[in-house]
Amino acid sequence: MKDLNNRVAVVTGAGSGIGRTLAKALANKGCRLALSDVNELGLAETAAACHETEVRTYLLDVADRDAIYAHADQVVGDFGVVNLIINNAGVALNASVREMTDDDFKWVMDIDFWGVAHGTRAFLPHLIASGDGHVVNISSVFGLIGVPKQSAYNAAKFAVRGFTEALRQEMKLEKQPVAVSCVHPGGIRTNIANSARMGLSDNAETLRAGFDKLAMTTPEKAAATIVKGILKDESRILVGPDAWGIEALNRVLGASYQPLVERFSRKNLYI
């Protein structure tokens, strides 16, 4: 996919953050947009910012498998084709394995992993039928390394990475006309930290303020990097200098990266 003009792009979690800026970046490239979110007001604001192209909005909870499959059928019915799916909707949880509840763990996995997996599977037949499709799944730098108090988020994002990398190989081996990319953002200046669930022992405001200080990349820069990666058919799209650093740390040190993360976490997470 060397040109996005007049392609139909589906973006989940488009009501804010990276999803919103991705929608705007795709609109600037001439994409027709199918945007979804659970936040109706945020979704309407995103659609208004993409007024130069055809936009349709859909209320969608990606934790609902049946709703995702119905959404795929509805989008194809509305546009006639789908060329690009960006499974972006996500949530965060900061809690230790001992402290997090089953409900919190399920909440993260249902949205961050199953939302991606079901979104991919629901749209994949339509992407193949388009003759020139692309799956883009949003993982995280926490899909590259394990971090204390991020076990649920790690589990989901590592799963997204494995699922997506396997799918890319399958599409090539089966000679299907679908490219596949996995995105690993570092700290992005979005509202995800403010909407994250916290463990009972955490100082939520201090942790959120700490995340804001570590967020090195604007949503606009993140969206530009992702769109560039799509056009270059990159298998792994690293977003932000911290993402490149963490990927290099993992590659060079292997499992020996863990003491470094422990020292960082002692200062920044156990507060």
TrEMBL record:
<dbReference type="GO" id="GO:0016020">
    <property type="term" value="C:membrane"/>
</dbReference>
<dbReference type="Pfam" id="PF00106">
    <property type="entry name" value="adh_short"/>
</dbReference>
<feature type="domain" description="Ketoreductase">
    <location>
        <begin position="7"/>
        <end position="191"/>
    </location>
</feature>
<dbReference type="InterPro" id="IPR057326">
    <property type="entry name" value="KR_dom"/>
</dbReference>
<dbReference type="InterPro" id="IPR036291">
    <property type="entry name" value="NAD(P)-bd_dom_sf"/>
</dbReference>
<keyword id="KW-0560">Oxidoreductase</keyword>
<protein>
    <submittedName>
        <fullName>SDR family oxidoreductase</fullName>
    </submittedName>
</protein>
<dbReference type="GO" id="GO:0016491">
    <property type="term" value="F:oxidoreductase activity"/>
</dbReference>
<comment type="similarity">
    <text>Belongs to the short-chain dehydrogenases/reductases (SDR) family.</text>
</comment>
<dbReference type="InterPro" id="IPR020904">
    <property type="entry name" value="Sc_DH/Rdtase_CS"/>
</dbReference>
<dbReference type="InterPro" id="IPR002347">
    <property type="entry name" value="SDR_fam"/>
</dbReference>
